[in-house]
Amino acid sequence: MSYESNPILDKLPKHLKQFIKPQNYENYTAIDQAVWRYVMRKNVDYLSRVAHKSYVDGLKKTGISIDHIPNMYGMNRILKEIGWAAVAVDGFIPPSAFMEFQAYNVLVIASDIRQLENIEYTPAPDIIHEGAGHAPIIANPEYAEYLRRFGEIGCKAISSAKDYELYNAVRHLSIIKEANGTPQSDIEEAEKHIDHLQQNMGEPSEMALIRNLHWWTVEYGLIGTVENPKIYGAGLLSSIGESAWCITDKVKKIPYSIEAAHTEFDITKPQPQLFVTPDFAFLSQVLEDFANTMAVRTGGLSGIKKLIGSQALGTIELSTGLQISGEFSNVIENDGKPIYIQTTGGTALAYREKELVGHSIAHHKDGFGSPIGKLKGINIAIEDMGPRDLKAYKIYEGEQIALEFEGGIKVEGTIVTGTRNLMGKIILITLENCTVTHNDKILFEPEWGLYHMAVGQHIVSAYNGPADLNSFDLTTHKVTESTIKSKKDEKRLQLERFYEQIRHFREGKNTTISRNKVFQALKRDHPKDWLLPVELYELAKQDNNVEFQQEILDHLEQIKRDNPKVGHLIDDGLQLVNGTLVS
């Protein structure tokens, strides 16, 4: 096991555990720690005034330090007090898996940390975004329940085949943008590819719509009033650039509603508008309104068509409670209703999320097809027939029968047996020597073996994933691209050593280090680095070494002239030290 488990993580299904990786805390460099410290000090100073009150309270409750990158397995010992846990993953994981983790009260944390060059914002999920953004807010019970419920509903959302292509493209961009030395042309090409995909997605899938809701609440949500909003979204809480930008009048504020599901976003740019919820409870209200539009609650012809379009494992549930899980490939319809459904490849049948004995993917390895609906000319549906009714209509062991359904599906064969649910309703009828046809088309032939006919008048639910998690091998996720760990040259290693020496000095681990020597070497060998001079200035100010302070300030002024883009970062760092930062 690559991670330290606990009672919450023990409950995770096996297919989610495949995404967990060790945090490898020892791989964080002193530069990484300095980036964390800078962002957190600036955020806490600023966010204490503009974030929802749960944020600062949550930092204390979740044990997140301002000075040190959190060890998430140490964090787990504190998170368990509020019924949550955290795991490390490698960057983006598929949206359905991400949401399913939430359904189990598990916070997914990308353990990498952004480069100093991307200190204000990165499209890549990192430990600043996840640990400093998501974790503190879940200390609020109402919000934590919203997050769990969102995961529970979101992981049932049906994707389209194009969604996965977009997921891979966004993951690729996040990886190359955080990799040292990636040519700007490669980044621009990746951004253009994402833009092209987003412009050609077609009708948005359920996953695309609910991902929009996730973005405008969990990631980029504001709370309170349009006139005086506070920040609670993790993307804003972890972005020292956008957390200030979002409060200004340059960003349009819109009252939160289900319309947010139809508002797309661009992960590569600051958001032009944000949604404001009056309180956390209202988030759950909108979520339930959206869930009422999903196939998991509406089923029907549109639900089965969504599953066919997803080209992925999904489940339909019939009005008898019978659940059919597989990759759906075809539906025959009549008068706007499904009258026959077909899967391809391994298919499993279940009832109440438990696989029926004798109906695993081994038994239905070549797919499964069945009529849906009522028999022609008979008022009572098969599912509503009691034992005497079934006998009267010759749906009885040993009887040779010809069943014609509304819409023209015919099932002819000899009844072998039937399977009933807990309420006594018949949910499956098994026939031998069976032929199934629709008009002149043969759907099943006697040579294919026993025919298992599902019983159900309606499709009441359709959703992503299997009914019984144990029916399928779900631990087959292939990572197309991993986070790039660039080989460090001697110059980079030297800079890391300088940061480590100053960190050890500040923490009292080694007070014999000459800060002046480090500073002179830094000026000579790393004249563009600005964060370590800010840390040296902080130490010089603590010692009241005015001369050294001035020398550092002069150097920082030169950096600002040479690279105006970092000027505001330097100024904010100095103001933090001087206690004068006002955003």
Which descriptor suits the 3D outline?
Answer: elongated
Count of individual helical segments: 22
Arithmetic mean pLDDT = 90
Main pleated sheet: 6 strands, antiparallel
How many β-strand stretches?
Answer: 17
What portion of the residues fall into strands of 2 or more residues?
Answer: 15-25%
CA radius of gyration: 29 Å
Q: Which residues form runs of ≥5 with pLDDT under 50?
A: none
Share in helix = 40-55%
Class based on secondary structure composition and strand pairing = alpha+beta
Please report the distance between the alpha carbons of the first and last residues. 45 Å
List the helices and strands and how they pair.
Layout: H1 7-10, H2 14-17, H3 30-50, H4 54-61, H5 72-79, E1 85-89, H6 95-103, E2 106-110, H7 127-137, H8 141-154, H9 161-177, H10 184-199, H11 206-219, E3 222-224, E4 229-231, H12 234-237, H13 242-245, E5 252-255, E6 273-277, H14 280-291, H15 295-298, H16 300-310, E7 313-318, E8 322-334, E9 337-351, E10 354-355, E11 369-371, H17 387-392, E12 400-404, E13 409-420, E14 426-438, E15 441-444, E16 451-454, E17 459-464, H18 490-506, H19 515-525, H20 531-542, H21 546-562, H22 567-578
Parallel strand pairs: 1-2, 3-6, 5-6
Antiparallel strand pairs: 3-4, 7-8, 7-17, 8-9, 9-10, 9-11, 12-13, 13-14, 14-15, 14-16
Helix pairs in contact: 4-7, 6-8, 8-14, 9-10, 18-19, 18-20, 20-21, 20-22
InterPro entries: ArAA_hydroxylase, ArAA_hydroxylase_sf, Aro-AA_hydroxylase_C_sf, Aromatic-AA_hydroxylase_C
Keywords: Iron, Metal-binding, Monooxygenase, Oxidoreductase
Pfam family, one: Biopterin_H
